Amino acid sequence: MNSFRNSVIEDARVLTADYLPNEMVARDSERQEIARNLRPMTEDQPPIDMLIYGPPGTGKTSMARYVVEELKSKMFANSAYVNCFSHKSKFEIFYEMLDKKLTVPRDGTSTEKVIQLFREKVRDSPTVIIVDEADQVVDDEVMFELSKLNNTGLIMIANDSNVFGHFDSRVRSRLSGVRKIHFRSYSVDQIVEILKRRREHGLRTDSVSDKQLKAIAKAADGDARVGLNSLRTAAQESEKQGNENITDKIIEQSVEVSKSRTRISSLERLNKHQKTVYEILEENGRMKMGNIYQSYCEQIDDNKSKRTIRRYMNKMEAYEVIDSEGAKKAKRYALAD
DNA sequence: AGTCCACTGGAACTTGAGGAAT
DNA sequence: ATTCCTCAAGTTCCAGTGGACT
């Protein structure tokens, strides 16, 4: 790829959060549990469906992909991945999981047809379906259809464990056998370990010290993605400056850059109404619902109903953009820290 | 300890866009 | 061209709950 000798970076791909490492740090029991639930597939039996949940940057998606790759190395199996943040509807979700795309974007193919095509695809080869950001799915039929499919295993990924709350009882009972697996935030030491392994494969080894990795890990606050982005940003910046080693100053800057970048990217996901709520909380600090909604209506012409705003806020809370404390009348909302 | 009511979240209903059927 | 159907997004309605206040 690059014929020049790089001063710091040896393999940039290794430093991205999407890179799938060949072993996962500190998630052994979770790995085993996922593998155990999929294992029946190797004996032609239906696997146990799963919900993996936990805060951002705790390795949920990576681990799911990791275990599925592991399974594929042991048997003939396929996998399908769909992220429901950008594909929310029944049509889009099934369409995304097909590998032969139809004429883009929509050629009048009905949702039923797309599901039928997916069924055909899955019929002859056992398939693990990874449904990322499953809490974005509003239509409970999707989960029903997915859980009904033969010859497939289902891994759902979400931020909180209560994603089925709004589904109807038929779907809930269908999903009642789903095994829930909790991914907790990483400790500082665990993030250091993750960063060390990436350094080993992606960087010239002595370009960044253990102590510096620890500083990055501390700032990442349990979110491995933030840690990895900080390290990559620091490495790229040093490279650009032609330095042999990453300096503390660059580390400090990169941590800031990457933290604000994550914040911005989660803010970019908010719609206009959610942004208004965000700004109100930013300005006023901790507030109760009534006051938030009142200010919101004052600031915006085409205001949505209170119920809708509350739904939006539930989402913001699941994505850790805002926080709440107390219950009922004493409940107060604020920006997440 | 009793009443009040702000807040929550489930459920049914409405709206509007866009494809399918005739 | 029109009517019908499906789907997503939002609204209206409402019962339950437990803090706040007396």
UniProtKB/TrEMBL annotation:
SUPFAM superfamilies xref list: P-loop containing nucleoside triphosphate hydrolases (SSF52540), Winged helix' DNA-binding domain (SSF46785)
Similarity comment: Belongs to the CDC6/cdc18 family.
InterPro entries (alphabetical): AAA+_ATPase, AAA_22, Cdc6_lid, ORC1/CDC6, Orc1/Cdc6_arc, P-loop_NTPase, WH_DNA-bd_sf
Q: Name one Pfam family in it.
A: Cdc6_lid
Give the UniProt keywords, A-Z.
Answer: ATP-binding, DNA replication, Nucleotide-binding
Classification via SMART domains? AAA (SM00382)
Protein name, UniProt field: Cdc6-related protein, AAA superfamily ATPase
**UniProt key word Nucleotide-binding:** yes
**Locate the AAA+ ATPase domain: which residues?**
46-182
